[in-house]
């Protein structure tokens, strides 16, 4: 904090409020979540009093400072937003009115997002390692540099100006990545438009289902890792997700269900809402893998380049025709071998397939570069805000 600004105890600008309320069974109440790491206060839900166990609670007002006495040292605090006005809290959460004649609530809101405010709470917490609770007198005794209201307003305006520029830059980078994805998707839809074709996937490849390797024989280590639906992600195999193994020595089923490098697999079960089924992945080199149930393998028996097939199976044309064919419950979706094999496919001659693959690989490389740049810039831009706040409350902004 700027040492040239007047120093004030928090207790001179914050006043604890305890506006009690007795929860009524038939009334509705807002409840809050105070997120840690300085992420502030959000509305959790609105429920009837009959669903609330603790009947003696406290009412909050917008613009108050809220803290968790248990997790304030972990950044669980924030200024109450307007949509949370009138929410109730238990005694584990504290509400403070702000002296508006001396403290701009927007200034306080940004202050709560700094390491300085976390340090206030850490210094004011006492107890054992896992039971360190905020002590109100010690918290209110913390001293903060407090510039005049006019200077607070200027600092807030400057923070918001810089924050808006960061958000605008992030928005433009996200839009660039989305545009790149859209261009690649549009290109694939044009290339793989087989709506009027007479041939189907089944004319070029069959889908082999996996085997139900019994989970009671799974091991942490074994001759082969079992590829389950959770391992098949959108475009790649994630073998680090809940890995299980099978000891296949002398097991003749390995001959039928062992995956080979460059095999293409598909997840055949998932959730409807997330659309996490129909994911396509390739088998990597030097991996000893077995095909589990609800994972399918494409067995190619007619001339079609595997890389061409891989791009087609990930295309919007294929996925748009796959999803409606799913059966199952309201939440779980299942696709069958025949659902996949009946989707139309009419590949051109092999040389043209390979030209298309080269084009799509190059296009995807460019898309990946844009997305990588967007992610890197987002990390860099996010790192600017703590630096801006640090300078602001040091009087350097």
State the CATH architecture of the largest domain. Answer: Alpha-Beta Complex
User: How much of the sequence is in beta strands?
Assistant: 15-25%
Low-confidence stretches: none
In one word, what is the shape? elongated
CATH class annotation of the largest domain: Alpha Beta
Radius of gyration (Å) = 29 Å
Mean pLDDT: 91
User: Quick one: how many beta strands?
Assistant: 23
Structural class: alpha+beta
The description of the largest β-sheet is: 4 strands, antiparallel
- Helix fraction bin: 25-40%
Number of domains as seen in the coordinates: 2
CATH topology of the largest domain: Adenine-n6-DNA-methyltransferase TaqI, Chain A, domain 2
| N-end to C-end Cα span | 12 Å
The DSSP helix count reads 9
Please summarize what this structure is.
Helix content is 33%, strand content 23%.
Summarize the structure in words:
The structure is a single chain. This protein is of the alpha+beta class. The chain folds into two domains: 7-146, Adenine-n6-DNA-methyltransferase TaqI, Chain A, domain 2, CATH 3.90.220; 195-345, Adenine-n6-DNA-methyltransferase TaqI, Chain A, domain 2 (Alpha-Beta Complex). 33% of the residues lie in helices and 23% in strands. It has nine helices and 23 strands. It has helices spanning 105-111, 115-123, 136-140, 149-191, 254-257, 306-313, 316-322, 337-341, 350-392, and strands at residues 7-9, 14-17, 19-22, 28-35, 40-48, 56-59, 65-68, 77-79, 88-89, 93-98, 125-128, 131-134, 143-145, 205-209, 224-227, 245-246, 264-267, 269-271, 280-282, 289-291, 295-300, 327-328, 332-334. The chain has a four-stranded antiparallel sheet with strand order 2-10-7-8, with helices on one face. The protein has a four-stranded antiparallel sheet with strand order 14-21-17-19. Strands 3-6-9 form a three-stranded antiparallel sheet, with no helix packed on it. A hairpin with a 2-residue loop joins strand 11 (125-128) and strand 12 (131-134). It is elongated. The two termini are 12 Å apart. The mean pLDDT is 91.
């Amino acid at each position: 904090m700027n040492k040239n600004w007047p120093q004030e105890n928090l207790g001179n600008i914050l006043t604890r409020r305890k506006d009690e309320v007795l929860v009524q069974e038939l009334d509705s109440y807002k409840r809050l979540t105070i997120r840690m790491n300085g992420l502030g206060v959000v509305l959790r839900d609105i429920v009837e009093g009959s669903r609330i166990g603790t009947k003696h609670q406290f009412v909050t007002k917008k613009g108050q400072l809220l803290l968790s006495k248990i997790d304030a040292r972990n950044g669980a605090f924030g200024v109450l937003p307007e949509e949370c006005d009138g929410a109730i809290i238990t005694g584990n959460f504290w509400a403070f009115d702000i002296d508006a004649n001396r403290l701009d609530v927007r200034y306080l809101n940004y202050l709560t997002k700094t390491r300085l405010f976390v340090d206030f709470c850490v210094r004011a917490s006492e107890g054992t390692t896992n039971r360190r609770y905020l002590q109100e007198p010690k918290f209110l005794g913390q001293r903060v540099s407090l510039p005049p209201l006019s200077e607070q307003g200027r600092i807030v305006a400057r923070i918001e100006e810089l924050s808006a520029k960061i958000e605008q830059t992030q928005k433009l980078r996200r839009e660039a990545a989305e545009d790149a994805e859209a261009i690649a998707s549009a290109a694939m839809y044009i290339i793989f438009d087989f709506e009027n074709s007479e041939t189907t996937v089944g004319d070029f490849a069959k889908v082999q289902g996996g085997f139900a390797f019994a989970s009671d024989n799974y091991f942490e280590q074994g001759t082969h890792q079992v590829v389950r639906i959770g391992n098949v992600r959108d475009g790649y195999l994630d073998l680090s997700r809940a890995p299980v193994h099978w000891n296949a020595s002398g097991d003749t089923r390995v001959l039928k269900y062992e995956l080979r490098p460059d095999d293409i697999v598909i997840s055949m079960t998932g959730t409807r809402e997330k659309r996490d089924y129909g994911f396509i992945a390739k088998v990597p080199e030097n991996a000893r893998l077995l095909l589990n149930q609800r994972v399918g393998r494409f067995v190619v028996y007619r001339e079609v380049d595997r890389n061409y097939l891989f791009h087609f199976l990930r295309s919007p044309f294929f996925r748009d025709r796959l999803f409606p064919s799913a059966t199952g419950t309201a939440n779980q979706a299942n696709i069958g071998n025949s659902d996949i094999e009946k989707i139309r496919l009419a590949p051109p001659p092999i040389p043209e397939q390979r030209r298309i693959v080269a084009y799509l690989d190059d296009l995807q490389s460019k898309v990946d570069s844009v997305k990588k740049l967007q992610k890197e810039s987002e990390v860099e831009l996010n790192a600017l805000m703590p630096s801006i706040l640090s300078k602001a409350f040091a009087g350097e902004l």
